[in-house]
Write a structure and sequence with these properties.
By secondary structure, the protein is mainly alpha-helical. The chain has 3 helices and 2 strands, in the order αβαβα.
Length: 133
């Protein structure tokens, strides 16, 4: 059994990767805040919700009142879409710098939480290995 490669660690790695994608998207929006006709981009994970609603996820139901849900979808990647429905500046640019900065702060908190949780998992393994002497 591999102590470091388990479903929880893989999920944390996927979440970190998605957070990095979101960070890059937000940074690109901030960098292009004054670029004429630039359209802001957004990292979305709605494809996961759509897949769940289509019934591709299954779970064992032991009671008729249980809701359908279950396993992890095979595609964990985030999608980056362009927001074309708004214009905030006279030059055709739709980057709202206040919104982008708040999204950046939220993503940083999320990323730090994931890192702390992953460090906790590694410290647990380190403790177990240290105790085995």
């Amino acid at each position: 059994m591999d102590l470091l490669q388990n479903p929880t660690t893989q999920l944390l790695e996927t979440a970190l990767s998605s957070s990095m994608t979101r960070q890059n998207t937000i940074s690109q929006n901030i960098a292009n805040a004054d670029t004429p006709n630039y359209k802001a981009k957004k990292t979305v994970f709605s494809h996961e919700l759509n897949r769940a609603q289509e019934g591709q996820l299954e779970a064992l139901k032991t009671d008729r009142r249980h809701l359908e849900f279950g396993g992890r979808p095979s595609d964990d990647s985030a999608a980056v879409v362009t927001r074309n429905n708004t214009v905030f500046n006279h030059n055709g640019n739709n980057v709202d710098i206040d919104h982008e900065m708040s999204e950046l702060a939220k993503n940083q908190i999320y990323y730090n939480t994931l890192i702390d949780r992953l460090n906790g998992r590694f410290n647990s393994v380190r403790t177990v290995l240290g105790q085995g002497r």
